[in-house]
Design brief:
This protein has 410 residues and is an alpha/beta fold. Helix content is 33%, strand content 23%. The protein is elongated, with a radius of gyration of 26 Å.
Length: 410
C-alpha cells in the first residue's frame, strides 16, 4: 500500500524522517510531499534518500531525487495512486488552507484532488493550538471525515509548556494503520514464503526455468509482514525489491530452495509455497557449453525433489498453503493436490485466463480449504489476493485454536 506523507513547515518536520522509516517497516510505500516552508527545516534530499522516490516540492515540476532512481510516479497521478494522505506535522497555516479549500501548492492541491482517506497530525505553539480559529478549522476537517491525531502536552520548542507537541510517532503510525484497515492478526506467527522460479542448468550458459516473476509470493510476504508476522522469504531469481522487514534467502536451483526451506522450517508456524519450482531438471549437467551441431539434441530429464510433499511430512501443527497453477480441470486438480499433499489451503489459478498466472500484476484464483470451503475470486491485484489468502490463514488458525480449546479437559 502507498501513502503520501505531507510535511509542512515547523521544527517538528525533522521527526517526519523517522516517521518515514516507521511507516516503511509496516510495509508501506511512502511518497513525500513538502511545502516550501518545510524545506527550511529539512532538505528534500533527506526524504528522497529514505524513500527512494522523488520528493515533490513544487506544483509545476521540480523536486529532489536520489541518483539512479527512476521517477515512478508522475505528479498528476499521485492523487489517484495513494491509499492515504498523511500530513505530519500539520501547521496552523496548513490546517487553515485545508479547511477553507485553498489550493496554492502541491500538498493543498493533492488534498482536494484525492479520494483517499486523510489524516493530519498538528504541531504548533500552545496558544496557536488553543486559538478558536484553529479549533474551528479542525472541527470543519473532522466533519469532512479527516482523522486528527491530537498533539501531546509537554515542553515545546518555543520554550512554553502545554498541548502542541507532535504526537508520538508510534501513535501516528498506529492511526495510519487503522485508517488503512491494516490488522495485526498475524502477530506471533513466523511465516515462511517461497517465491519466484527455480533454474536447472543444462550447461554453463543454458538452463530450464519458467515464467514466474515472483510477484505473488512477494506480495504474500509483504502482506504477512504488514499484518504482524515475522517473515522468511526464500526466493528464486527475481527483479523485485525485498519488502521492508522481511528476511530473504536467495536461491537459484530447486535443491538450493529445498535446503533453505528445510533450514528455516523449525522456526515457522505457517508455510506458504508460492514458488514455481521446476518439476524436472537435466539428468546430467554438461561442464562445457554444448556446441551447435547437425541433427537433434536429446535432453534427458529427471524429477526434482517434491518440496511441498517433504514439508507436509514434517507439517506438525504448522499451517501449510500450496499453489496450483493449472491449464485444465483447475478445481479438480487443485482439490487433489489439497488432499494428497495434506494441505490446509490451496490457491488454484487457471493460467490460460487473461489476467491470471505468470508475468502479470493481477491474478484470478480459487481458494480451497481443508474444511471444504471454496472461494472463487474475481480478477484483482496480487496484493489484494495476498491479503485474502492471509484472511483464510487467520480463519483456519482460529478454527485450529478453537478445536484445541474444546478438546481440553474441563
Amino acid at each position: 500500500m502507498k501513502i503520501a506523507l505531507g510535511v509542512s513547515g515547523c521544527i517538528a518536520a525533522y521527526k517526519a524522517a523517522e516517521l518515514v522509516r516507521l511507516l516503511q517497516q509496516e510495509g508501506l510505500s511512502v511518497q513525500v510531499v513538502m511545502t516550501k516552508s518545510a524545506q527550511e527545516f529539512v532538505r528534500p534530499l533527506t526524504f528522497a534518500a529514505l524513500t527512494g522516490q522523488k520528493v515533490i516540492t513544487e506544483m509545476f515540476g521540480g523536486g529532489a531525487e536520489p541518483a539512479n532512481v527512476e521517477n515512478a510516479v508522475e505528479h498528476i497521478g499521485v492523487a489517484d495512486s495513494i491509499d492515504a494522505l498523511v500530513v505530519a506535522p500539520a501547521t496552523a497555516n496548513l490546517l487553515g488552507k485545508l479547511a477553507q479549500g485553498i489550493a496554492d501548492d502541491f500538498l493543498t492541491t493533492l488534498y482536494l484532488a484525492t479520494k483517499a482517506p486523510v489524516l493530519v497530525a498538528p504541531a504548533m505553539n500552545v496558544n496557536m493550538w488553543q486559538h478558536p480559529a484553529v479549533q474551528a478549522n479542525l472541527a470543519q476537517l473532522r466533519e469532512r471525515g479527516v482523522a486528527v491525531v491530537e498533539p501531546d502536552q509537554g515542553y515545546l520548542a518555543c520554550g512554553w509548556t502545554g498541548p502542541g507537541r507532535l504526537a508520538t510517532l508510534e501513535e501516528i503510525v498506529a492511526r495510519v494503520l487503522t485508517l488503512l484497515g491494516i490488522r495485526k492478526d498475524l502477530a506471533g506467527e513466523t511465516v515462511l514464503v517461497t517465491a519466484g522460479p527455480t533454474c536447472e542448468d543444462i550447461d554453463p550458459v543454458r538452463y530450464i526455468t519458467n515464467r514466474s516473476s515472483g510477484r505473488m509470493g512477494y506480495a504474500v510476504a509483504e502482506a504477512a509482514r504488514r499484518r504482524g508476522a515475522e517473515v522468511i522469504l526464500v526466493s528464486g531469481p527475481t527483479a523485485i525489491p525485498v519488502p521492508s522487514g522481511v528476511r530473504v534467502e536467495r536461491v537459484r536451483t530447486t535443491e538450493e530452495m529445498r535446503q533453505a526451506v528445510r533450514a528455516a522450517l523449525p522456526q515457522t508456524t505457517v508455510v506458504i509455497k508460492a514458488a514455481a519450482v521446476a518439476d524436472f531438471r537435466p539428468a546430467r549437467t554438461e561442464k562445457h557449453k554444448i556446441k551447435r551441431r547437425r541433427g537433434e539434441l536429446k535432453l534427458e530429464l529427471e524429477p526434482t525433489a517434491d518440496l511441498l510433499e517433504e514439508v507436509a511430512r514434517e507439517k506438525g501443527s504448522r499451517l501449510l498453503v500450496g499453489f496450483a497453477a493449472e491449464s485444465e480441470n483447475v478445481v479438480e486438480n487443485a482439490r487433489l493436490k489439497l488432499e494428497t499433499k495434506h494441505l490446509d489451503l490451496v490457491v488454484a489459478n487457471d493460467i490460460t485466463r487473461e489476467g491470471a498466472g505468470f508475468d502479470g500484476e493481477t491474478n484470478i484464483v480459487t481458494l480451497l480449504s481443508r474444511d471444504g470451503r471454496q472461494t472463487d475470486l474475481p480478477k484483482m491485484s496480487k496484493q489484494a489476493v495476498a491479503d485474502l489468502i492471509l484472511d483464510e490463514v487467520v480463519r483456519l488458525r482460529s478454527r485450529v485454536e478453537s478445536g484445541r480449546a474444546q478438546s481440553l479437559p474441563r
